[in-house]
Amino acid sequence: MSNVFLYLPKLKSIATPVIDFAERMNIYTLALERTSPTPGSVFTLITTTPIPKLATKKKFVWLTVSPIPLIRFWQARKRIVQSPGNKTLISGNNHLALIASLLLRLTIANLKIQTSIHAELAAIQEDKSFKGRVKFWLMLKLIPRVDSLRLVTSRDVDKASTLFKLPRSQILVAPVPVLISGELINKQKTEFPSLGFVGRIHEERGVSEWTKIAIAAKSKIPELKVKVIGDGPQRSYLEKALSAISTSVKFYGFVPQAELIKLWPEISVLLVSAPKESYGMATREALASGTLVLAKRNGANEDLKSIAPELVTLYDDEENAIKLLTEMLRRAFKPSQVNEFRKNFEVQQRDYLDLLAKSWL
Fold this sequence. Notes:
Strand content: 15-25%
Largest sheet: 7 strands, parallel
Shape: globular
Helix content: 40-55%
Structural class: alpha/beta
Order of helices and strands: EHEEHEHEHHEHEEHEHEHEHEHEHH
């Protein structure tokens, strides 16, 4: 049997709502059970966040530990030491969690450490802020010490191997799983066409360009509605920038997955203006729900278009985006195209999850 531990002290600091994160943990647990050669494998989340009321039955162990770092360290160590079988510790969402994980390995025999990079490496390298430089320096120092590195795109494998001096055999590609509804919700043509933003509202999402396109599109399509789902440091900027068309704009803030699934049918086109994209969870959720995607041309979005050519349109500049958006809003919804994408995507995602789970055994 295998025991897998995810050390994620500050669960509330991640962009995903806690309830949705728990659903994702269930997906990981099922992949572990599916690939484990012997029964009894256990997935444990170690966090300071108390367990919330969940919509579905929890399939993993939720271990709430102390917010005090030293006490938390010994609580985590005690649980890992007492657990039988092979042991893998997955480092959480910051460098302090990775440092703690590496220290735990010094005190626990045969403990494997895995960490993840969820952003495109080029975007991390290009961040020249003080915080960005420190983050990259720590990555260069810490990641070479792990047993395996998880990336979300195959485009970064060679670069990661060179940067972190890791053999390719220690690097795997497994994007974060996307939660989609069991059935395609019937998408009726809405009374008014709508443009959507879904995700964290921050600089890396190309908020300035997205705003310019939305305002220009509204001037050409007066009946256009704008829906912003998410939150973040640039929300106030976005609200101010869209004030001229505020009567046509609705801000939802962060919403749980169960609510987002119901909102997707109300969005005609999801506009994605991020100059760099590692994988694109929101775009895949949109496509699986029958929402067309208009995305800035980059490596990740070109990959996405290759698997959903009828549902994804790429733009090169703002003028091009407005022209393409006008054409897309006239396009008829074709359930057969969406169902084909859903079928292929579910197979691909399962393969990625099985590969990831096997790395823990």
